[in-house]
Every structure is written in C-alpha cells, then in structure tokens.
Amino acid sequence: MHTRTAAVLLATLLMLACAPTPRPTTSERSSNPPLAGTHWVLQALGSSAVAKTPPVTLNFGSDNRIGGNDGCNQYQGNHTSGDDSIRIGENLAGTLMACPDQLEAQARDYRQALQRAARFALDRDRLSLRDDAGNLLATFVPAVTSPVGTTWEVVLYNNGKQGAVSLLLGSRISASFGTNGRVSGSAGCNQYFAAYTLDGPSMRIGAAGATRRFCAEPDGMMNQERLYLEALQTTATFRLNGDRLELRTANGALAVSFRRETGE
C-alpha cells in the first residue's frame, strides 16, 4: 500500500515539474508597468533639439501615473504600457501659467507628442517614443534623481517665520552636494560646509561650519546668511524635478529651493 502511494506521489511531482510555467495575465503585467519608477528629461522632439532650460520632464509612477513639467507648466495624467507599447491619456491635467510664446509652443508640441505615442524603446539609457506609423516623436535622457555630485543656486529660503523669501539683490548662495557626504558652497559672504545624509527621499543636514568674514553690503547680508544656514538644518526631505531641487522640513514647509547651476 505504501509503495503504491509513493509511486502516485512521485508521478504527480514529475507531471508538475514538466508542466509549462503559466504566463502572467494582462492584469498582472499591467500591475508592474515596464517604465514604473523612471524619470526622464526631454532631449528632442522628433529630430529637433529642445531648450535645456527650463527642462521638460517625464516621470513614471508605480501606479500607471505620469507627471512632470512641459517647460511651462506642471502636468499629470495616466498611461498604460506593455512590452513596447504605450498609451498616454488624452486629458492631462496641469497648472495654467503663462509663458513666453516660444516655450508655450514647445510645451504644446510636447503634450501632443505624448498623446500620439504608441510605442516606446529603451536603448543605451535613452527613451524614445514613436507613433503608430513608427515616426519618432520624442527622445529622453535619464533625469538626475539624487543631489549627490550636483551644484545648485538658491532661489528661495525659509526665513524662520514660515515664509519663503528670495535673496537680496546682488547676492548669491550656492550648494554643492559632494560624493563624500558633505555639502558646501557660498552662503553669500562666507564659505560654508556641513555633513549630510540621504535615505531614499529623506535628507538630514548637520550644523554648518563657515569662514568668518563680515560683509556690510548688500544691507542685511549677514542676517540672510544666518537664516539660510539655519534653514538647511531643518531639512527632512528633498525633491528633484528637472533643474529644481526642493528641501522641505518634517512638516512639509519649504526649507530651501534651488535651481541647477548653469553649465552643469
């Protein structure tokens, strides 16, 4: 009896081992889009290069969502994709800022290209979108997703009163995030440095050391420098979007807003 039972079990195991592995269903494939979690910067529309500033960005979320900046406005929407197919929803929501005519025209052409996309290809870290006829619509390169190894200029900083303010006229503040875990730059008058750590979207910046110059002009320079260095230490998270880097506090308030330094 035991011998017969063992034989039946052995035969069953052999049948299971030889059976083909089930292919994932359409719903299973679509639950893990091939472009999920990737971030891109537009390099060309068709065969024509686009302006690098401001950058046009395309971000793929993990839930079939897309978003980015069309060079004039922020936008978001939905998409579906397969092995090499892609469809982007016709109704892209976005902000409604007015921009120079040239940027608005480029933004319009870009959105139209997205909505005509039918195929995509990844080749040597480049993403290309094509229409149903195979015509090239847009080419992208990977976006910077970490501040490490980049240099930025301050646009806004938190003045300690829950307000984001611009820099004094004639002043400049910079920040370079080194690969050695140190951020450094000009605080407007003095050079400064501080340790920083990253953990996913979380960032911590330690107390800053600085040189000890005194700058009388422009009026208020030393106070601005102090407030900027204090704002850095309140950083809890960071967000990158094209040529913009935002540092935010634990409660979501803006600590510092940067623009990518020209020439990088």
Automatic annotation (TrEMBL):
It comes from the Bacteria. This is Putative Heat shock protein. Keywords: Signal, Stress response. Residues 34-140, 175-258 form the DUF306 domain. Residues 1-19 form the signal peptide. PANTHER family: DUF306 DOMAIN-CONTAINING PROTEIN (PTHR35535:SF2), HEAT SHOCK PROTEIN HSLJ (PTHR35535).
